[in-house]
């Protein structure tokens, strides 16, 4: 088990998720996943011909999400997640049961919110025109090519280590028509 500078295994455990998150950002996997094309990288969600739902620029209710679930189902997918920006997740959390009510339409669950029965995952890489992506995780694949390397180098200027990771990835969308994009059509 890795130990942190303080020698406490518990501290190392708390630091690990942050390190993994930073690594994912450094690798720009999220950016490639949500992009149309990536230089020297895989094509992402915006490159697909997907089922689309126009939100008409507003989130007054959950009807677009229900429509997207049926659109995905009509194309052979059983959506498992919504992918949104943090701002959209916050806007969804603020929806009320009625215009004159202060009761929230959605309830927080252990790991966030669910919108028509599906968990909401957030990423800052969702483009501004997209409200949400509805995806079926069983119809997507992430391929990590053999030969991925992680190297450590001592830092001579401070008491630490530099880490360099090199990997080749490929994103596979097995049923592009089953992916549902909710967006504000121009």
UniProtKB/TrEMBL annotation:
Location in or out of the cell: Virion
Pfam families in the cross-refs: Phage_capsid
Top-rank taxon: Bacteria
Major location category of this protein: virion
Coiled coil (residue ranges): none
Domain Phage capsid-like C-terminal span(s) in chain numbering: 36-180
Signal peptide stretch: none
Name recorded for this polypeptide: Phage capsid-like C-terminal domain-containing protein
